[in-house]
């Protein structure tokens, strides 16, 4: 399935889908199925605010370039109206070796699809992702 086709086929976002994707995230462009074209991602600094589906997914692609074995465990989920809160534990192997840290996503849905996501975490790992994003070769198609 091409990226263009994924943009046309929307799939409802669910906590179970989040868990399944982040258990072994190997196809980051599939996230396009579950986000609006105008999604806003509030990533940890220094990444910051990212607007639009392609740029939002590019952060995930870059995260997986920095750490190909990145994965999340999801011990807790809470939902209230159009908001879902997901507490997660990240683990993988970065340039300095194995890591483990905690965070939380606050996901807002519009018609069952993600239109806004706040990622709360202060781990320095996101600085590595930001460094890679700021390299011209990593933002292909932008």
* Record field, number of beta strands: 6
Beta-strand content estimate: 35-45%
Query: Count of helical segments?
Result: 4
Task: Look at the helices and sheets and give the structural class.
Answer: alpha+beta
Order of helix and strand elements from N to C terminus: HHEEHEEEEH
Helix content: 25-40%
Biggest sheet architecture: 6 strands, mixed
Q: Which key terms come to mind for this protein?
A:
disordered N terminus, disordered C terminus, Nuclear Transport Factor 2, Chain: A, alpha+beta, 40% strand, 142 residues, 4 helices
Structure notes:
α3 packs across α4. Strands 2-1-6-5-4-3 form a 6-stranded mixed sheet. With about 140 residues, the protein is α+β, with helices and mostly antiparallel strands. The model is unreliable at about 5 and about 135-140 (pLDDT under 50). A hairpin with a 4-residue loop joins β1 (about 35-45) and β2. The protein has one domain (about 35-140): Nuclear Transport Factor 2, Chain: A (Roll). The radius of gyration is 14 Å and the shape is globular. It is built from 4 helices and 6 strands, in the order ααββαββββα.
Provide a brief overview of the structure.
The chain is of the alpha+beta class and 142 residues long. The chain has one domain (34-138): Nuclear Transport Factor 2, Chain: A (Roll), CATH 3.10.450.50.
